[in-house]
Amino acid sequence: MSKTFEMTGIIHSKGDTTTFGNNGFTKREFVLKATGPDENSSYPNYVALELIKDKCALLDQYNIGDELEVSFNISGRLWQGQGKPEKCFTSLQAWKISHAQQSNDQFNNDNQMDQSFDEQMDQSYDEQSFSNQPAGNQSYGNKASQNTPSPSKPITTPSSDNIWEDDIPF
User: What phi, psi does 56 have (nearest 5°)?
Assistant: First the structure.
């Protein structure tokens, strides 16, 4: 049993269905330009995939420029012609194709939620007043905490040799 892989990409090119041999074996190749959050647009990845037999028709309903999500298996085989060195052929055989819109909508929704959370955290962080006091004396908008007595020994900054001048044992 082979492992299934998935990728998202934009159709860069697609070939015609070709028939090989007397038994009617069909094959169709296409190229995707990989897309997604982990892809660097400065260095695009173009991946050649193939459809075989009855799967060749899966690509008919899509056009160059459409963004797809493709499920595929990796297939490899060795070949050696008479008196020639051995060659290894690797194929990425697609068996499921769908529009990537659904997964992109989910990605965009997740991204918007992450950005909203980050903005809320940034705003909350900016609203807090921080000082060189221990955590118990920091003001977070609560007036009662401002009346807390200050520590008996002030917090110091590191000395020139990067050793803290306080009595904390770590």
Answer: -55, -35
Distance CA 46, CA 107 (A): 22
Task: Choose among 63, 64, 71, 8: nearest CA to 35.
Answer: 8
For 120, the token pair is: 């809320």
Cα 71 from chain centroid (whole Å): 16
pTM value?
A: 0.56
99 strand-pairing partners: 68
**114: Cβ contacts below 8 Å, ≥ 6 apart:** none
29-38, 94-103, 141-150: which is most confident: 29-38
Query: How many whole angstroms separate alpha carbon 80 and alpha carbon 89?
Result: 11
Measured distance CA(8)–CA(38) in Å, rounded: 11
Residue 107 DSSP label = H
Q: Name residue 27's beta-bridge partners.
A: 18, 52
pLDDT tens across 31-82, in order?
A: 999 998 889 989 999 999 999 999 999 999 999 999 999 999 999 999 998 9
Helix (H, G, I), strand (E, B) or coil at 22: coil
